[in-house]
Amino acid sequence: METVVQIAAVCLAAAILGAVLRQHSPETAAVLGLAVCYAFGTAWFMIVYAKDSGSVGLLTALGWCVFPFILPDCVKMALAILIGKRLPKRLIQRV
Asked: What averages of pLDDT result for each successive group of 10 residues across the chain (95 residues)?
């Protein structure tokens, strides 16, 4: 059952991102995509953790699942955006 929920969450996130990307910039889609992943991940953690070990508060879950990863994820997102903007120009020049 857990795998089905995870697959459904990924499909929903992809659909949301596809809709956002049609109307907004890739940067906006990347930020919203990260927020969607954090939201699903935190909710899923709270459900699974509560089932196994008891209830956990939202701030505690965010402290374990989101806050430690914000800076590294933002660095990766910035690098992906920079590479994405420069890569097509270099490919066009070589062709």
From this structure: 75 81 83 86 88 89 94 93 79 60
